[in-house]
Each structure stands twice: as C-alpha cells, then as structure tokens.
Description:
Blueprint: E1 28-31, E2 36-39, E3 45-48, H1 62-68, H2 105-119, H3 123-142, H4 146-161, H5 170-184, H6 191-197, H7 202-216, H8 229-235
Antiparallel strand pairs: 1-2, 2-3
Helix pairs in contact: 3-4, 3-5, 4-5, 5-7
Amino acid sequence: MMPSAKKKKEKPSIEEITKCPQCGGTHLTKDYSRAELVCEDCGLVIDEDFIDHGPEWRAFDSDQREKRARVGAPMTYTIHDKGLSTMIGWKNRDSYGKSIPTRNRAQLYRLRKWQRRIRISDATERNLAFALSELDRMASGMGLPRNVRETAAMIYRKAVLKNLIRGRSIEGVSAAALYAACRQCNVPRTLDEIAGSSRVSRKEIGRTYRFIARELGLRLMPTSPQDYISRFCSELKLSGDV
C-alpha cells in the first residue's frame, strides 16, 4: 500500500503574520507597489504577491480620490436611517454632469419630493429624526467629539426600543442621553452645561437621566472633580505645571 500523503501545511495569511520569522521583529511593512511584506529590522521579504484589497484605481490628490470613490459615507447612528439611504441632489444634472432638459425637471421635482417622504415613513423614524438632530445641535454647541455623539445616539435608540420615551419630552430624553454619553466616554460635562445647550431645565434632565440609566442598566461612576481640572486649565490658558 502506498503511504498516505502528508497534508501540506497551509500558508498563513498576510493578516496572521505578526513577526519576522528570521529576527523576530514586529516592524513589518506592506509594500503595495511590489505586493511584498517586508521586515524593517532585517530587510527580509516575508511574503510576496499578496492580494491588495484596496481599490483598483489610483488617486494623486484628495479631489481625485473623492471623484473616483464609488462608496458613500460610513454608517453612523447619528442619522435616523444610519446614513444608508440615498439622496437626489438639487443640481439638475445627470451622472455625467450634463444639464437635465427642462421637460424632465418637473418629474425630477416629484421624485425628490417622494424621496424625502419615504425616508421618514412612520412615527418612530420621525421621533428619531427630530431627536438626533437635537443631539447633534447640542453636541455641536458644546464642542463634543464624534464618539460622544455616536454613544448618545445609541443610548437614545435603546430608550426608543424599550419605549422609555412615552410621556416624556424628546428634548429631555435627548439631553439626558447626551449627559450619559459624556460620562460614559469620560468627557465630563455638568448638568448646567447640558441645560444651557438644551431647551429643558436642569431638574428635568437629571430626573430623566436617572430614569433611563436605571431602565437601561447604565453603570456609570460618579464624576470626580479631577476630571474637570484639565478642561478648566485649558479654558483659562494655564500651563501644564498648574
């Protein structure tokens, strides 16, 4: 009988290679022009002819990159439809940049109108659209980073799914979600600051925050006074030694 052939050891993928097999270095560079994985420490070519998962086109500046890209913006929770819907522009031009004839503009106007209507189809989406616009307005006024806005939008969406909005104002729940997101992301903001950017009182924001934190199981530690020192020093233009 013929001896059973031994299975060949599968070649590891380019993502699985984390160190150089010769010197053990971890400074690896992917040279996409040569399709090679090179160790910066010893110069060994670890892998060659690997697959480039990037686009097949080249761009030499940001304008060319925007024109040649065939994808939209990344998904975000700060928009009621997560940014996955389409938009019909108002430039009255087709995909080739040519002006649309006058006889077809009335039809295009009707398409735009119905497209706006179907983006918000029910009461839940109308609620989300208004609440997320309020969140974005308050976060922009306070100069909050993107991760805080995404976290606040997620908290508000969870509150909507658990039907915690009934009987409460949308502005109050939005402000409470933003306050919870600030504490969760370690970006300290006081209730007075949140109330100053919103249209509801400090008392209502605090009451709504305690309610949604209890119902959603948000375990947030109390804010320490030390968390405000760096921000206050920056606003007062004090040195790091202070």
